[in-house]
Amino acid sequence: MLRHRWCRESSLDDGVPAMKILAVLECGTWAENHLVGSLRDMGHDVETFFYGPAVGEFYGRARKGELATRNSELLGMARRAAHGPGGLQLILCYVYDDFLTAETAHALANLGVPMVNTNVDMVNQWYRQSRTARYFTAILCAQKQNMAALAAHGARTWYFPMAARSSELEPVDEIDGSFEPAAPVTFVGTPMPFRTRVLKYLSDAGVPIAVYGKFW
User: Fold this and answer.
1) Per-residue confidence at 168, pLDDT binned at 50, 70, 90?
2) 123-128 contacts, C-beta under 8 A, 24 or more apart
3) What is the Cα–Cα distance from 13 to 196, expressed in whole angstroms?
4) Is 169 exposed, middle or buried (0-12, 13-18, 19+ CB in 10 A)?
5) Selecting from 3.30.410, 3.10.450, 3.30.450, 3.40.50, what CATH number does the domain 6-159 have?
6) What gap in Å lies between CA 105 and CA 109, rounded to an integer?
7) Are 41 and 165 in contact (CB under 8 A)?
8) What is the pLDDT of residues 74-86, one digit of tens each?
9) 27-30 contacts: CB < 8 A, separation 24 or more?
10) What's the rounded Cα separation, in Å, for the pair 117 and 141?
11) Disulfide-capable partner of 143 in 59, 122, 190, 204 (CB 3.0 to 4.6 Å)?
């Protein structure tokens, strides 16, 4: 289910006018908390378009109509924001070509609003932005690997390492120091073929493991 949210602040603490930003991203994950949360902490006005629960969500032939509808909804929201009071100063995306079609990316670029995409997995997932790369003002790359390969598709790539908001959890010095991990070997991440093979090898060898992440 798509969810949209709007937050208004008049200006930043130093008096600089807040930007009106459209964020296009997955919902309920680090992206919502850290990307959108950071911008709102700074005082910017952020409208969100959530395309689904995961950046790499699969849209097969059976979901072709759904994909077209959602892309149309995104474009409609961007146009309303761009032509509304105050205009639109930035379209910030964390999106792959799995969802964003080249036609929609082209139409968004034609709005004349700076449009930035972020790729936090250039090591394995860089190619999933190759069809829409040329339409973005810049693609922020968390690792330097494959930046040249993505640039070959017309992308303007900027090296932009990942960062995070201040944690809302308890301060480290207030956490009970008696914590014990669930297993001697712990893995955090989504399942990919080579990862599952390595973890299965460890398990078969009798190594206790704990695995965390979506879709396991």
Assistant:
1) low
2) 124/192, 125/56, 125/96, 126/150, 128/56, 128/96, 128/97, 128/98
3) 47
4) exposed
5) 3.40.50
6) 6
7) yes
8) 999 999 999 999 9
9) 27/3, 27/52, 27/53, 28/53, 29/53, 29/54, 30/164
10) 9
11) 122
CB 18 within 8 A of CB 45: yes
SS3 182: coil
**DSSP string computed for 102-140:** HHHHHHHHTTT--EEEEES-HHHHGGGGTTTGGGSSEEE
Spatial contact of 85 and 17, defined as CB atoms under 8 Å apart: no
Question: Does the CA dihedral 149-150-152-153 come out positive or negative?
Answer: positive
The two structure tokens encoding residue 23: 């964020």
**Extents of the domains making up the chain:** 6-159, 180-212
Place of tokens 């959602």: 70
Non-local (6+) Cβ contacts of 38 within 8 A are: 165
Q: Is 196 helix (H, G, I), strand (E, B) or coil?
A: helix
Rounded-to-integer distance, Cα 108 and Cα 78, Å:
7
From CA 5, how far away is CA 153, in angstroms rounded? 33
**pLDDT per position as a tens digit, 55-98:** 999 899 999 999 999 999 999 999 999 999 999 999 999 999 99
